[in-house]
What does this fold into?
Amino acid sequence: MRCEVQNFRFVLFNTILTIVSVCLPLEVSAQVPPSISSPSIESPDALVREVIHNEVQAQSRDQSLWCYREQQQEDAKPARTLQVCQTKDGELERLVALDGRELTSLQAQVEDERIQRVVSHPEQLRAKQKKEREDGEQARNLLATLPDAFLFQCDHKSGNLVTLRFRPNPAFRPSTRSAQVFHHMEGTLVVDAEQKRLVEINGRLTSEVKFLGGLLGHLDKDGTFCVKQQHVGEGHWDLRSMRIQMNGKALFFKTITVLETKSVLDYQPLPRGATLQQAADFLRRDFDVHTASSTGK
It folds into this structure.
């Protein structure tokens, strides 16, 4: 049964998160020169089209590497705090706290040994990175359909930030199974009209979503998600926070509840081409500094 639930969850997250693939942790958004035209909300559809074009281009061009601290909570599992470093061979992460409690010396030693095994045998990490790149390409393709999948209406403007409401475009004909969920979704977008960047997206399922006619499972009406991104430095935008709450049934009628929250902070750039060993050394130093600071040593 575990396999079926994981497959259903993959469909769920691939469907929901690809809508906001600009905010995926492995896809840091590079700076794209904004349009020289002044911010305008007279044509919401045109504004969204330009913003989405910029996001897709940013993800395609970026080669930068970053370290950051990630706090995550998934379903009823213990809350985890991770320090993550991106490298040319994939992401390396270190667990630093569980349910807000720092690791014991024994737990920290176990993490050191695990990280060193990954550094010494990076084959699985590279295979994972290859799969994530393939998923990222699919995500960008789905993101590019966003301007066609919805109709947009200006809600309000505050400085450079424009809030737009979106609802399904009845004329949209999805070409993939994942894109079919667009017919069941409405919500708001917040965009930076000057930088032409996506700042926030909030969505709600307006009706039940069935996968393969319900054979693979379904998502209940009123499931919600909220994803925010921010400028993290050097012209780069990346994930700030994410919250997903969905209910439904997986294969064989297993009831599931998906609740995931994530916040990311303390972005620090790494040298281009950073290796796994360099990332491991950075994670070790950062952990030592954080531990010394928290214990007052």
